[in-house]
Write a structure and sequence with these properties.
Elements: H1 2-28, E1 39-42, E2 50-52, E3 55-57, H2 59-71, E4 77-79, H3 82-91, E5 95-100, H4 104-109, E6 110-126, H5 136-142, E7 145-148, H6 152-159, E8 165-168, H7 171-179, E9 185-189, H8 190-199, E10 207-223, H9 228-243, H10 246-254, E11 265-267
Parallel strand pairs: 1-4, 1-5, 7-8, 7-9
Antiparallel strand pairs: 2-3, 5-10, 6-9, 6-10, 6-11
Amino acid sequence: MRLISLTGLSLAGLLLTGLSLFGMSLVLSSRPVGAASLRMLTEEWAPMSYQEQGLPMGYGVSLVQRLAKELGEEANIEVLPWARAFAIAEGQANVLLFATSLNEQRSRDFDFVGPIATTSISIYAKADDRVTPASVAELDALGSVGVYRGSLGESILTRQGVEHLTVASFPQQSARQLQHDRIRFWCQADLAVERLLAEVNMGLDEVHPVMELAQIDLYLAFSKGTDPERVSRWHGALVKLQASGEMARLYHAWFPKLNPPSRVELLKHGD
């Protein structure tokens, strides 16, 4: 009888301990109980996001990991080709896609938190090619432009009627095509130019910008159907990170010559 009594007390103690730990986990985690996991998708676009020995790396990856930790979210980030990542985010709820630019269609389908970065989309040529096109139409007449499939640069050039586009599945392919004179021009964002050139053994001094197409902001995009409260929490966490100066420190660690965004906003789809 004594043994039964002691065992009963032990079980009760374990039960109370388990309940206490469960309660503490609710207090410490800001993620609602029973909330669906957030699928986090990005692309191979160093140094914003890329894989190294199978692990996601880059400024955007580091930023998302810090925010996820603050919010008690699992940061299982997948690095996929952009077109595939975008198709998944377009068709599923609870997807975070980064880093994403704004356009009219995306503004109807996603909620945006940011900007997390600002960049210039420009056309580059080899340094010894001193061509200076005065317009996009003239650019189109002078040679083929290499672009990354699904990129903002491709969208801008297509809307402006450029016909001589060479579309690559990965941004490194366009840089390599420029290196081997398979294209005359290369469309890319300034955030990524130096790193992409290094990946094909070229230096920044081997190219020069011949035309700027646009200045754009890049955001965290949350797919339609994601709980608005969850999106608001991510917005709040980014505001906190910026106010502390940590976002600027992280930005300068990856982009020492560029200035971080000066504002953080929440843009809801359909607004």
